Amino acid sequence: MKNSNDKVRYLTEVALLIAIILVMKLTGLASIPVGPLVMTFTMIPIAIGAMLSGPLAGAVLGMVFGFTSFYDAVTGASLMTGAFFQLSPVSTFILCVGTRTLVGALTGWIFRGLKKIDKTDTVCYFATG
Predict the structure, then answer these.
(1) Digit-coded pLDDT (tens) for 31-47
(2) What are phi and psi of 94, to 5 degrees?
(3) 121: alpha, beta or left? (left if phi > 0; alpha if psi -120 to 50)
(4) Among 11, 15, 19, 103, which one is most buried in terms of CB atoms within 10 A?
């Protein structure tokens, strides 16, 4: 980041995407129940943040989503992660928070790597999206 305007823009983008993730989670807009499982579209703002702001932002956004998933596991809101939490709370924390943090970071790293190859960014957006 070159100057303070870049830092403010970066923090604003990440904060807005965190707010979007939390609103999607709290309102249930991103959740589609399929039996005992729940499909979610919460990875969309995480991928957008990782592509626009980099791997660190993707990791932070993924971590926020992971903590919301772990909260669901602790409270029993999600049947599958709630069952995993009964077996092993530590493994459930790693499953919820660790993997989602890595997904956000890896999306940003893959985007940056493909951006070096494809200057038009078309392939980058499709591959990491």
Answers:
(1) 888 877 778 898 999 99
(2) -65, -40
(3) left
(4) 103
